[in-house]
Design a protein that fits this description.
The complex is a heterodimer of chains A (about 180) and B (about 375). Chain A is built from 6 helices and 7 strands; from the N terminus they run αβββαβαβαββαα. With about 180 residues, chain A is of the alpha+beta class. In chain A, β2 (about 45) and β3 (about 50) form a beta hairpin. With about 375 residues, chain B is an alpha+beta fold. Helices cover about 45% and strands about 15% of the residues of chain B. Chain B has a 3-stranded antiparallel beta sheet with strand order 1-4-5. In chain B, a hairpin with a 2-residue loop joins β4 (about 35-40) and β5. Classes of the chains: A alpha+beta (about 180), B alpha+beta (about 375).
Amino acid sequence: MLGIIKSIGTTISAALRKPVTVQYPTEKKDLPHRSRGLPVLLWDGDIDEPFCTGCQVCARYCPVDCMTVTMKDNPNYAEGKSKRKKIVDRFYIDYARCMRCNICVEVCNFDAIVMNNTWSGIELSRYDRRDLVIDLDGLLADHKKGRLKDPFREPMGVAHSGWTPKERTAEEQEAAAAKEESGEE
Amino acid sequence: MTTEYQAPAEHELETIDLNINVGPQHPATHGVFRMILTVDGEVVVDVDPVIGYMHRGAEKLSENCDYRQAIGYQDRTDYLAQFNTELGYVLAVEKLAGLEVPERAEYIRVILSELNRISSHFMFTGAFGTDIGLFGTPFMYSFRERETIQDFFEEITGERMMYNYFRPGGVAWDVPEGFEERCRYVLAEARKGIEDIDGLMTENEVFVARCRGLSPVSPEDAINWGLSGPMLRACGVKHDLRRAEPYSIYDRFDFQIPTGTNGDVFDRYLVRLEEMRQSALIVEQALAQIPKDGPTMVEGMKRILRLPPGEIYMRTETPRGEYGIYLVSKGGDKPYRLKIRSPAFSNLSALKAMSAGNYVADAIIILGSIDIVLCEVDR
């Protein structure tokens, strides 16, 4: 009997605490800065083109093969507006397959891909599975329209070994990518 | 005139054993697990467990992934103790590669693994209460505290379930600012939760009446059946890999190994409850010892890790028991063979011996007390 009274005491003391739940669709929890939604591409607002050069390093390292990337010559480079010789032509990510492991973000040479840390990277229910294959425009939309304000990106290994991608120029980055590609194949 | 039913005198009543299917889709089986119970009246005569519904071929899939990509599959073997399984895998890779992990990364890993042990055992107490029939209250209490821990993990790794945070050579990125204060807060909340569960269940007569003396296992049987983890320690065998073969930095902490006396269901619950307290102690000590800053990844880590040829068996203590990784490398960036020794599978194989002779309702409790994770059993 004493044990049951003790149990009821615990229940009563818990009943007096504040609730920890939130009423989800109307009230949303703040996501942490590092929240990993699904991957999106970043938009270079200065030149009006994506950061992505279509080097396919993310597609190659993806454990579940959810990405398809192709590359083309950059028309802005011919006009002298951009330093990127090559630019992404088509980019598809199958969000239904992606397991949000962050590896694409870690391996990207150009800071072009991040995990969406806003609610738009999480609320993605669709009626048809095929609608979850997102094309280039869809992937760029979040950053282009300013919905993705403060993405989190810290590459693994490279950052800790003193290699800071931000300080490198586009040529150096391309040289590194070309070197890596030739080393890989 | 009487309406009472009277058996015909010339026929003796015949009794036959009845087969009952529990699962594969049944809330009491903790996943897609099927038990074919053969019952005589209300007493279980035989149990035929059917597993494999969740088989994904994680071992084979890992053989097609490099050492970083395969960490994602480790999360998905034991989805309640992801950090512990990740730790076992990265330790195996590091040992074979001969990597010296920075201090700070080691401490971060131990803190997260032990908090994960607490959250996994919270899940056990909640689900176990539901198995016994205390639906709602312990489950909700457990989940409230588990939520605090998961929010903390989300702040560090960005994910709520599949963290993918430990890497061969350290951790993927450093913890955020204010990690230690946050961790102390989470620990205080978790301790409050442990006391709540303790107050709610341990002395509750209904709970004790259902659990005490149910399916006692002798230490000899436990060892012969290959039980490990809390299941083994509840039988009175003082064996914990964190003490028996200290891996990582577990030899620096002072903690007790709780053991039971007769190995019944109640002892398994008590051992887990005490283990949560001991894990909290380890986290507290680790927080006091952790270096304030420093690298969290081996210097000059290559983008692709290539291991020398060789093989290794690394066993670690996850909340369910001995989690073993057998890794064979023939050089290159992918393992030649990866074998996972999953503790829940070995513990589950003793189910037949433990539940024969008990009531059907008790068979559910015995299954719940094993604390199985079907993803890990079937991998």
